[in-house]
Every structure is written in C-alpha cells, then in structure tokens.
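Supplementary notes for students who missed Thursday's class. We covered one full example, reproduced here. Read the sequence, then the structure, then the short commentary at the end.
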Amino acid sequence: MIGKEIISEKYTTIAHATEIMDERADFDELSYEHGCSLDYLRKFSTISKDDADAMFEQLVNLGLTEKMAVKIIDLLPETEEDLKIIFYRVDVPENKDEILEVVSKFK
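Structure (token representation):
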C-alpha cells in the first residue's frame, strides 16, 4: 500500500467482500492479486450477501460484537464445540443455543 492511507476499517463477511470484488471485476480488469482474492472469496463464500446481512443483524441483536458476528457468519458453526473455537479467547456466551439456532436457519 505504498502512498495510500487507511481511511476507515470495518469488519465484513466473505459474502459481502465477494460482492464488492465481483462489482469491481465487472467495472475494471483486476490485477493478479485481486483475481486471486476473488477466486478465494468465491470458493469460500457459502451464503448470499442478503442472508449474511440478515444473520449479522440477528447475531448483533443477541449481544455479539460485530467482529464475532462476522466470524460466525464466515465459519457457520454447527455445534457448541465449533463455537468454542471461535470464542477461544473469551467465554462462550450463555445464549449459545440461540446463536446456533440463528446459524441453522441460514444454512
């Protein structure tokens, strides 16, 4: 990032990043690095941007931080053990069953 500065930062899901990169690819030819990034995003994007946005809203309403909500959306945990991996530095929330229920609705 020579000559560029960070203006702002925001956590985003793989689904949203895929949409951004797809729009950029439609508008202009991508560099090699951007092409590799888009390929990665397409391989690992498991849900649509609309579903990711809806799930994000529900997870944040359950009291999760934006960072944790994005990680849950990207990884789509199925069990409490999966959640423990995501929350490895902090305690798993007491409403873990509600979190897993939200995730299961969008799979």
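Commentary. The CA atoms of residues 54 and 62 lie 13 Å apart. The longest helix spans residues 14-27. If anything here is unclear, bring it to office hours.
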